[in-house]
Amino acid sequence: MFTNERGEAIRRAAWSSVWENLGRVADKALLKQHEVAFKSWERRGRPDGAEPTLRQVSDDATMHDLRHFYASVLIKHRESVKTVQKRLGHAKPSITLNTYTHLWPDEEDTTRAAIEAVFSSAPSMCFPGPRR
User: Fold this and answer.
1) Is 12 helix (H, G, I), strand (E, B) or coil?
2) Does the pLDDT at position 132 exceed 60?
3) Closest residue by Cα to residue 58 from 23, 33, 85, 25
4) Taking all residues of the chain, what is their mean pLDDT, rounded to a whole number?
5) pLDDT > 90 fraction of the chain, expressed in percent and rounded
6) What pLDDT shows up at residue 80?
């Protein structure tokens, strides 16, 4: 997934310095994005409650956090257990489910969404105001 300047896989021993560098690169990009947003906020007259917040990579962020983020994005976008399992390299789907089952919508979520979808397109049967 990550390669060095020669296109070779990064070895475990070198990973910590690579990770630190990625954090610095990300922080630089986040700072630049914040500067643009801050200038835009100033041009709009500094509206209350709209001041942009500077985001930075947490000092305790790990590669494992990135892996969990990746899995949660796949699940949020309704990828199957099998797909997430393959992308994470788990030996069995049960490993994926044991770790991430709380992120998949449960029956209550999906049944509620199904009923709301049906009724949201149905014409209203209620009178718009008081009957006379």
Assistant:
1) helix
2) no
3) 23
4) 88
5) 55
6) 94
- The tens digit of pLDDT for each residue in 36-61 reads 999 999 999 999 989 999 999 999 99
CA distance 38 to 26: 18
Task: Taking the CA atoms of 89, 61, 73 and 32 in sequence, report the sign of the dihedral they define.
Answer: negative
Structure tokens at 120: 């949201």
pTM reported for the whole predicted model? 0.59
Distance CA 36, CA 30 (A): 10
Going from the C-alpha of 80 to that of each of 21, 64, 74, 76, 88, the distances in angstroms are: 33, 21, 8, 10, 12
In the chain, % helix, strand, coil (3-state, to 5) comes to 60, 0, 40
Question: How far from 121 is each of 115, 117, 125, CA to CA, in Å?
Answer: 10, 7, 12
Instruction: Give the pLDDT confidence score for residue 131 in this predicted structure.
Output: 57
- Rounded to whole angstroms, the Cα distance separating 59 from 39 reads 27
The pair phi, psi for residue 9, each rounded to 5°, is -60, 140
Q: Residue 81's CB: how many other CB atoms inside 10 A?
A: 16
Single-letter amino acid code for the residue at 2: F
